[in-house]
């Protein structure tokens, strides 16, 4: 399972039952990436969807399956590794940002009265 699939599965686990829109919003990803990913997770039996009436349109309510919960638990090491990678990148990004900040203006010396 990819990191994005694992995180999407985790969102359904944390926020479920929820819609695909909730997952998309939580991840800040495009629908073109999330909707096919959620269909794959459903095809693999990791999540299930149930049609819900919502206004004039229907929506699918997503929930995690016991198999999905087991898969998420098995992914703990991969999540720890991904988090370590994010921490390392965050540190580098902070260093870059600090170096990009303009240096504070130098104070002028007061002209000596003479």
Summarize the structure.
The chain has 114 residues and is of the alpha+beta class.
Summary tags:
alpha+beta, two-stranded antiparallel ribbon, 5 helices, 14% strand
Shape: elongated
Q: What kind of sheet is the major sheet?
A: 2 strands, antiparallel
What's the helical proportion of residues? 55-70%
Mean pLDDT: 90
Q: Order of strands in the sheet with the most strands?
A: 1-2
List the total number of helices: 5
List low-confidence stretches. none
Element order, helices and strands? HHHEEHH
N/C terminus separation:
77 Å
Strand percentage: 5-15%
SS content category: alpha+beta
In total, the number of strands is 2
Radius of gyration: 23 Å
Write the layout of secondary structure elements.
Elements: H1 3-15, H2 20-27, H3 31-43, E1 47-54, E2 57-64, H4 66-74, H5 76-100
Antiparallel strand pairs: 1-2
How would you describe the overall organization of this protein?
This protein is α+β, with helices and mostly antiparallel strands. It has 5 helices and 2 strands; from the N terminus they run αααββαα. Strands 1-2 form a two-stranded antiparallel ribbon. A hairpin with a 2-residue loop joins strand 1 and strand 2. The longest helix has 25 residues, at 76-100. The mean pLDDT is 90.
